[in-house]
Amino acid sequence: DGGITQSPKYLFRKEGQNVTLSCEQNLNHDAMYWYRQDPGQGLRLIYYSQIVNDFQKGDIAEGYSVSREKKESFPLTVTSAQKNPTAFYLCARPRQGPRLGYTFGSGTRLTVV
Amino acid sequence: AQSVTQPDIHITVSEGASLELRCNYSYGATPYLFWYVQSPGQGLQLLLKYFSGDTLVQGIKGFEAEFKRSQSSFNLRKPSVHWSDAAEYFCAVTNYGGSQGNLIFGKGTKLSVKP
Question: How much is the pLDDT for B96?
Answer without folding.
Answer: 57
